[in-house]
Amino acid sequence: MEWQRDAVSSCSSEEFVKEASEVTNFLEEVEKCRRTCSAEERELSVPGDKYPEVVFLGTGSALPMKIRNVSGTLVNISPSQSLLLDCGEGTFGQLCRHYGDDVDDALSKISTVFISHLHADHHTGLIKLLYQRQRALASLGRPFSPIYLVAPAQIMAWLGQYHDYCEEILSHFNHIPNRFLCDDAEVSKPKTHSFIQAMLKKNNLEEFRTCGVRHCKNAFACSFVHQSGWKLAFSGDTMPCDAFVNIGKNATLLIHEATLEDELEEEAVEKRHSTTSQAIGIGMKMNADFIMLNHFSQRYAKIPLFSEDFSDKVGISFDHMKICFRDFKILPKLIPALKTLFAEELEEMEERREKRELRNPRGSSNEVISEQKMFRRSEVERGAKRDQEEEEETVMHSIDTKRLKTS
Ligand SMILES: [Zn+2]
Ligand SMILES: [Zn+2]
């Protein structure tokens, strides 16, 4: 398909709803879900707290796509305080789409941004966000104050170069290098120490911890505990990682990447990501109350493949989904309706998986695996869509690395 640069995208929610309601059995499933949820609500009759509220702004990996943008998760800690977890390209656009006319108010509340690592799908929306936040504060007549940027130290090469050759940016943030929030880290600089204390105070947090994870160099996960007792853990990108289990112990909510389906474990190792069941397994080890999966490969843009490990503690995220802790009971109940809505896509993915299984039975020899890799290569040559995305991811990551290296 040819790239139409001048094409104007339009989105009509009525059309989406109409299309969905025409899917066989979908409305029945929604009705069933509604009935069980409202019966349970009556039974519990606990309204629950509205905060923290988690808004998924980008739940896809590698490249921004129509259905899932790249990484960005807003945590509204209180009505006046927000923290952003990763800021991929297009995060500001997603905020505009989510908050509409109230976007300036939403921007003005962001006091802290955590960047897990320097792959482009996790940080290239930051500069735009910083400028837009400054504009929003001015237009609301609120005083400007820099954000707390909790990010790998290497981000300064990029921001410093941008500051020197493009526009002033350094006054927009106070940088806290991720490694200074690792357990046993010694914070020798008084300035960093005071930024950490001020960041905790601003967000009413008791602690904010990071740990190195198994992804690329200088990749981190984080966890933080609010004064009221809740704890949130965020994986960034990683293979299953014990250090993360440790800092996320007993989290109220774990947000974990689940880039690939279970049958692609080998590919997950190659790309240093997690599969769906690995992500759920980490949540279980962590003893998390609830696990939200995100960062899906764009090959699962509409819906990821479900695994047998799904339980009443697991939910899947979509862009613009907004949840608070009282929703944990409802989220798993949405799954039958989602399976009905995306039945066609799921069937296609299952077929693809079966074909792959036939080509590469489990426990096959290295010879067969390398033969399969050759087969995959020829698929790429034919422009097979699913592998193309991963190729693009690799290219993008290497461009990103080059840029950072030269800066
Ligand atoms: Zn990523
Ligand atoms: Zn990454």
TrEMBL record:
Belongs to the RNase Z family. InterPro entries: RibonucZ/Hydroxyglut_hydro, RNZ2-like. Residues 373-388 have a biased composition (Basic and acidic residues). Keywords: Endonuclease, Hydrolase, Metal-binding, Nuclease, tRNA processing, Zinc. It holds the Pfam family Anti-Pycsar_Apyc1. This is ribonuclease Z. The keyword Transmembrane helix does not apply. Residues 352-407 are annotated as: Disordered. It catalyses: Endonucleolytic cleavage of RNA, removing extra 3' nucleotides from tRNA precursor, generating 3' termini of tRNAs. A 3'-hydroxy group is left at the tRNA terminus and a 5'-phosphoryl group is left at the trailer molecule.
